[in-house]
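User: I'm curious what two different proteins look like when written out as structure tokens. Can you demonstrate?

Assistant: Sure. I'll show them one after the other, since each token string lines up with its own sequence. Here's the first protein:
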Amino acid sequence: MLKNRTLIGIVLIVAAIGLCFGISPLFNTILASKTTIIRLKQDIPQGVQITGSMLEAVEVGSMNLPADMQNDPKKIIGKYSVTAMFAGDSFNDKKLSDTIDTSDSLLRQLKPNETAMSVTVKSLANGLSGKLQQGDIIQIVSVDEDDKAQIFEELQYVEVLATTSDKGSDNTYNDGEVNANAEDEEDQSLYATVTIILQDRAQALRLAECENTSLHAIFVCRGDEEYKQKCLKAQLDLLTGGADETAEATSEADTEEAQPAMNIPENKNQNNAPAGSEEAAHGA
């Protein structure tokens, strides 16, 4: 009996020594191990495109980190936030999207100096045969009851925010489809309105005046970010350069011969027209 107790005591002592000098240091090493993660350093609302300036790399303990955490900046930058996120939040694929997927998100993306306004598309030809997409730069041509075509200085370079069908579904995220509606894919129609981003009150006033005329969209560019910014800057310079809000460039010829009364940025990229449409390159 005494020998058994002695043996048990020796085993317990050995186990305690092993715990103190073996397992405990190993556990402490695991606790002390660090890893670098990518996280937000500021609050952002839903639908914001992630940029490098919003991120920070920090060292944290490697234990209990989510298995699906995304720590590759290349797979984060350029994506959009699916929900509102806050400083210190980490990323995973469920929090990020390749596209903005709600109309609310689109409106939240507007800059402080920007507004948005929708105009009616009265026919297939008026809306560039259903080929307009979010981000396109277009010119607006107004044709009155006397078939007089006008290109207004305020509307020479404007950006498309969204196109919307008469049922309210947006054709913003499905390239090649007209007003795609996931709930009713077989019943699609021409978009009824085009929502345009405006940089100045004068543009809103002019666009409202044109609503009672027949509006045509002339395609300018798609996908060329550098040329797009040149166009928008040229438009903003005209709006803020002391131009009269009622000034207009009038063309008595057809809309294909109408030329803007401003310096047109040179487009070196000839491949930014909507694919498969000769009409899209020249306007409706």
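Here's a second, unrelated protein for contrast:
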Amino acid sequence: MVEGYSTEEVVNWCLGYIDPKYPIGISKPRHEGRLTGIGILGQKTFNPVPLAFKQAHFLVLQHTSEVSKYIDEHKELLLRENPDRNEAWLARTHMDRFNLWFRKRIHDSESGIDEGIKNLASGPLFTVTSYQGYDINGYTYYTVSQDQKGTYQNSGVRIDAYDQSGQKAAYYGQIEEIWELTYPGFKVPIFRCR
């Protein structure tokens, strides 16, 4: 009976030191309630190679639904000006010229353009932040180099991608680099995979 009383007394004494905001029990996942991304490991800032930077910005524009009408407009313009060119040339030229054309198109437009579109057209800062790990949409992703350092590995990704003709194909790869592009008012993470 004395032992039971002592145990109860010790537990009550310990409870006095536990913060009531953080109850004892099963812990909450660290991602709970957060869908936006945040870099978690190995933060570095650098100025990327101009071609890689241009490709990263192009990728962001191509995957933003609000930009799709401008993508179609640019492709139609290229086709109209170059009717004798093949699909490969049109795709290559679109990739090469779209960023500057989009910036000029938005800045020359009258009012009525969404502020987010204007920020996208302005482009990101040339200084890029890279990470070895990134939390986004409730998951943690690592680069291959970070995977080799630890026991928990999560550098593999799978996406359903669509090519220029609209054909769907599964893509499997491993994350080599994680970049965070900084646009006016928001940031966009990019995973470079192999």
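A detail about the second structure: The helical segments are 2-15, 50-62, 68-81, 87-108, 115-122, 144-147.
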